[in-house]
Amino acid sequence: MGKSVFIRTYGCQMNVYDSERMAGLLKPLGYGVADTPDAADLVILNTCHIREKAAEKVYSELGRLKRMKEARTKAGGDMKIAVAGCVAQAEGAEITARAPQVDMVVGPQAYHRLPELIARAARDGGDILETDFAVDEKFDRLAERKADGPSAFLTVQEGCDKFCTFCVVPYTRGAEVSRRVDAIVAEARALAAQSVREITLLGQNVNAWTSPPPAGAPGEAWGLGELCRHLAKIDGLDRIRFTTSHPRDMDDGLIAALGEEEKLMPYLHLPVQAGSDRVLKAMNRGHTAEHYLRLIERIRAARPDIALSGDFIVGFPGETSEDFEATLALVEAVGYASAYSFKYSRRPGTPGAAMPKQVAEAEKDDRLARLQALLERQRQAFNAAQLGAILPVLFEKTGRHDGQLVGRSPYLQSVHVSAPQSMLGSIAPVKIEDTTPNALAGVLVGKGEAAA
Ligand code: 5AD
Ligand code: SF4
Predict the structure, then answer these.
(1) For residues 306 and 340, what is the distance between their CA atoms, to the nearest angstrom?
(2) How close is the Cα of 327 to the center of ligand 2, in Å?
(3) Looking at ligand 1, which atom is closest to the CA of residue 167?
(4) Domain interval for residue 431
(5) Rounded distance, CA 230 to CA 177, Å?
(6) Which pLDDT tens digit goes with each residue over 116-153?
(7) 27 and 82 share a domain?
């Protein structure tokens, strides 16, 4: 019987991508993917360190796994536990001290070494800690990419040099590194050959991506706009998305590409975090609210149907109620199709953690509730505005009801449609007839495929 690995993924889409790649890496070693940890030979927690709650979850999960491992050992079996991802990077030594049941700790830039770590753990026992930064090597050593469904993530950039004062990412993921064009194209082609229709280019600061052009192409350095136009030439790939963008790196080339390249979907995640210039400065965002609003105007001029999404933090140290009102005013001015909002979480080692005037928890709760109510109204208004529209939908999975498929609109909304199973993986026009709190519902119009 083959061995099995269970991978639990926390946090962002890049962790989802990394987990998939870890599974791919372990397959040649005979590991199948298990749906639960119960019988798995290897359990990997791919962790997130962005907020305190995310990091805490890892330790409680490790508690559960410890009991499972003890029971397994008693029964004469074995179970190895690995902690991967950003908690591994940030708290490696602490994990091995606090949780001796952990066999391997592997940072986000070192998981390509998992096969050797597993071999070492089996041979030597003891804890193994691997948290070097070597992004290039990581990508070079990954196994062939296997697609899972018609939509796939593809990491093109990792790390962050922006050092927002609240954020751990520059410390856990390291400096900004871009993958080379040829490696990205090869991975995109491999996905397209497996019937992937949509790729989402991932990066902590994806629009900081830059690379020399491929051999024979003009120019000294390409930006994300050129990369997207280049990937759009791949037959079979019909939709391209990218996330997460930083306002400071939203250059003219990328804005023009959004306006001109139809395969680029009209949806942009462009976090601003706060609406008060004083808070933006304390956060070291490198832009003002006015700069962000003008940028949105330029993007909308290039691509009038673009849907916007953002991230917000309430209760950053020193945020007054007037500062918070400025966030609400900015949200009113922009009008978001969707958004994520969080209470500020004090992260050890970041400048924000040491700042005076930390905001009381109850005040943060209150601000978050008000902001989320406004963002939810905007989301519902955006969804309601699609009623009667005909949208191209990419069918990704079967729905809960018989004969139902679930797909995505260009604006990333889930769309429920009665459609034959055979349409899974295809794009077809759907007339939107209803909205529920978290999805749209519609009917197929005509036959065949719509231009996405
Ligand atoms: N507290 C709360 N939210 C945070 N984020 C990043 N760091 C923190 C923190 N310390 C949020 C930001 C970022 C998103 C991924 O997580 O909004 O854009
Ligand atoms: Fe964190 Fe700021 Fe970098 Fe985004 S830009 S990853 S919020 S430091």
Answers:
(1) 18
(2) 18
(3) 7
(4) 390-444
(5) 20
(6) 888 888 877 666 777 776 666 677 666 667 788 999 99
(7) yes
